[in-house]
Amino acid sequence: MSQKIPISILNIKHTPLASTINEAPDIEDQEIVEEVLQYIGKAGYRHISDILLFVIPDLVNRNILNPNDPIIHVRISGDGRNVGRKVKHVMVTCTILDDILNIHKADFHYTTILYPGVENYETLQNVMEPMISELHNLVINGLIDPNGTKWKIEPYFSSDWKFMAIILGFNAANANYFCPWCMCTKKDIGNRDKIHKIEKNMNQIQSSKPPPGHLKAPLLPMIPLDHYVPDELHVMLRIWDRMWALVIQELKSENRFDDNIRRIISVEMQRISVRFHFWQDHDTQSWSYTSLMGGDKEIVLQNFNFEVLFNIERANLINQLWRDFYVLYKSMKEPETDSALFAIQAKKWLDLFLTPYQGEPNTISFKKGLYRPKDITPYMHVLINHIPEFIKLHGHFGLAAFSCAGVEKKNHDQVSAFFRKTMKNGGKGIERKSAIFEILYYENQFMYFTQQSTFDSVLKPQYFQI
Ligand SMILES: [Zn+2]
């Protein structure tokens, strides 16, 4: 039963040595870290076609897919969790965009590949090799189910910036040509008179003379470039980080970033029920602060009152910037959002971000502006220029359908549950194979029972008590 979707364990050739990851660990539990390190060099793989053939009957049964109009919109995603400071747990998943009611649930993102190791181009190219040729084949030839229906596969991709850049063979976000979709340069990022459209395509990227920044061949060239959709959650998280850093930077530049101001910030966070604190690094003496999760960041966007830090005029301006960004973030995710209206609102937000100073410096009439063009980040560029296009192209799903929150949760939960020497419910008569196999085996079982329960609820006669 659980073998319905076969599981292959692959050996990864040329596993690079783990080097220290320069990011905060997502999982720090020492027992898990040690276990994960033991599996470096191995990868688990389930064929996308096996997964699709398994889920199609249920999707047809629930009227999500229509055999008379046989098309499946398949979204591929990738995620790497930091397990300790030496290794990542990397996962590539597929999900059915058409199943819009379930798309945000972690259990509806099906693992096709998973491995502990390094999240880089060479390793992914190596591990994904069979999956890449499989997806290529599916996109070209479609998928024939046991009833003889030939399904057309329409592929999409969504992930955070780093993973997407690797898949596209593209350089890092801090390079001069930083944008995967257009030819905007770092110099032009603050030019508010220019609107950038998606101007590259996969044919150009694959050619022998690709646009600047495309250093390596794309790993998934069968997915059209305008089907690479940025993850809405990361758009919010990273723009939030920038806005927060700008506030802290301003306090520092005015020599006000002291114990008192740190206390005021903590108290205001407490008022809005967000757990937040500062601490000082022993070696560097620099101050760090809590890295907030998405939900807390949303609370701060809506409720943090900057009057506790700045004079009323300036606080109003900054409050407005944070509240307006929240409204923009909410409407970005809605399926009914009008792309033209969103483009106007996003542009207005950028104008607010770039509010210039007024009056003569060093006179009483002088009014400080907000931020400078060079403070604009690649994610802001994407929000202003490309999100309106993505809303227009894929808005029928709603951009929330491209969120990677479900994939991240799945990866985090699986690592926490399976990479332990003594599993909570394991060990009882079950001989442990490998944690990689166990994760995929468990997922097979879960998919089987989920499907059985929906079939049962539809097929079994229902009895109601009157
Ligand atoms: Zn761009």
TrEMBL record:
Protein name: Transposase domain-containing protein
Native organism: Rhizophagus irregularis
Highest taxon listed in the record's lineage: Eukaryota
